[in-house]
Amino acid sequence: MRIHTGLTTSAALALALIVGAGTAASAAGPADPVRFELPAPTGRHSVGVTELHLVDRARTDPWVTGGKRELMVSVWYPARSVSGYPRQPHMPPGTARAVDESGSFGLAAPGEVDWAATRTDAATAAPADDHAPRPVVLYSPGLGSTRSLGTSTAGELASRGYVVVTMDHTHETSPVEFPGGRVELQKDPLTGPGKRKQAIETRVGDTRFVLDQLAVLRDGGNPDAAGRRLPRGLGKALDLTRVGMYGHSAGGITAAEAMRVDGRIDAGIDMDGTLKYSGTEFVPAAVEGLNRPFMLMGKANQTHLNQPSWQSLWDHSTGWQRDLSLERGGHFSYTDAQTIVPALDDRLDIPAQRREQVIGTVVPGRSTAAQRAYLPAFFDQHLRGLPRDLLDGPSPSHPDVRLVQ
After folding, report:
1. Superfamily the domain 2-388 falls into
2. Coil, strand or helix at 402
3. Per-residue pLDDT tens for 44-63?
4. Phi, psi (rounded to 5 degrees) for 323
């Protein structure tokens, strides 16, 4: 495995900077590494998954000298059959090793967590259920994070009948593992409004390129850089006339900005991403507003009533909009950390303050259930034309979610 190091930081340090400094767990780990499981999807469809290595030869990579922009994405989809196909790892081996060696997102010492052990419920390269084209939903992770931390929501949406494409933004999200075991880490700390603006603009370019490559796939081509074999029926399963996008943190900003400039995206969700480059410079979507459905999902006390960039988006948008607050939730409640951190805490005794910084104090199972209800409801309503009352008022089934008016 080749790990290409960055200038100053890795995914673990980037996350540690976001959630606050401090050591995690105990220096002396358990006799055997901690393992965890992700919750199984609840929809009626079995789920398949495949990876694509995409190279944009029209763009140079802004974070390295002379290289073309290359991406890794995972495509999660309803599968025709999963019998005989292996379960997809939560993280590929090089990614798992890089996460472990860099301190497990600031939550554990090297060797304390077996990141390579977890398997998803998705079947690798299983044939797609292509009896009818399905809406496509894109996912963008947070700054310095990895698309692997969006696995639970991606699998859930796929089990509900969506094709979900989770994207990594190479040299900025981290780590990113390519075919052959090459691992790329974050190349720049991305501090300051200029770098943050460059990162978001690059992410938007990535998103538009991925949509272009999905069109190639839909039309019978193979966009993978090496032409690796694709799951049977995958291209026919794509309905690119119905496209949504959601993202966590900087990924939520990416969703808003991609919607602003690309009319192919019909509806979007920002999961706790502040819509600004700096304290005073909002992203254009927040200044101009959006004319298509967009939903804000914030942690505790993050709403359009007290977050100026969200208020600006709210005031300037003409499309359908909602603002949901996850009471007692934390910034990383909207990722797989909502499941992973409690599992690690059971063995490693993570300090309470540290745990609260990452996932808040919301009951993990209730948080997960709420997200599994509201994300499909939003995309059902706006990509499938199926009205969902859940989006119109409080739900006794999800008492931790507050609809902010």
Report:
1. Alpha/Beta hydrolase fold, catalytic domain (3.40.50.1820)
2. strand
3. 999 999 999 999 999 999 99
4. -130, 115
